[in-house]
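S.,

Sequence below, as promised.
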Amino acid sequence: MANMTVVRNNPISRSEVGAVERHDERKNENYSNMDVVLEQSENNVYFHQPHMTYLQIFDDMLRRNEISTRGLKEDAHIMGEMIFDVNTRYFEENGGYEFAKEFYKKAYEFAIKQVGGKQHIISAVMHADERNKPLSDELGKDIYHYHLHVVYIPVVQKEIYFSKRSKDKAGQFSQGS
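The prediction came back faster than expected:
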């Protein structure tokens, strides 16, 4: 099997934010993924830990005019999540947990560039608490599947050259607006 990184980029609407946050931040009491071992969650690594809930961060950025939702429909995607994933054996053969931490630190730095800066990152956490049952059985020890969740606010930089507000009463574009 070839070793390659896969990055999924999932859009998140306001109504979906809570479920994503509960999964990524390990706030659920039960998981449909039976391989999540919550006792191992202390090994999860934060590259950017949220200081409030995802929606509180989003709404706080709106309040401070750091972002705008002008023109967005009610069900618009207000966040995105990049999930970086590599096959488990790759990490096991190259140093395991410590190697994964360094690998995903670089992936996090890549994500920062892709989203336009750290200020747009809500959370970035490497999960190290999902047991890979087939590989664990094969090797006779617990092996965990490492992957990185990066939740961010997609931002489009927009320059407005002319608008109705740029015109004077005679309908001419004014310089000072």
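The CA atoms of residues 8 and 147 lie 11 Å apart.

Coffee later?
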